[in-house]
Amino acid sequence: MENENKDVNFFEKFGLEVTSGDVEIGQTYPIYGMITKLIDDTPGNVIVEINFSIRANMAIPDQDKVELLKQRAFEPGIFVSTVKTKDPGLHVDCSTVVFGRRQQFSA
Fold this sequence. Notes:
Blueprint: H1 2-14, E1 28-33, E2 35-40, E3 46-50, E4 54-58, H2 63-72, E5 77-85, E6 91-99
Parallel strand pairs: 4-6
Antiparallel strand pairs: 1-5, 2-3, 3-4, 5-6
């Protein structure tokens, strides 16, 4: 129950809401999800798959940041992306990625 209140406060604090609908080419949207596949890890031209279905281009010039992106794959994040094409499948240019705090567990 306590975690539920934190989620509500986060959405209220930042004025966010979850909606569904059609996206428009050229528009920028925050995509909530995770990197499910790394297609190309060439610095400057990184291509990933988000949520098993969205192909995202990322201009990450630094190899260290590419490695960090690999480490954070399968962790939830927000991908601020501009829609380039919708057919066949959604292709976006991702300008910003925001990951949450890493979960630390002690065994």
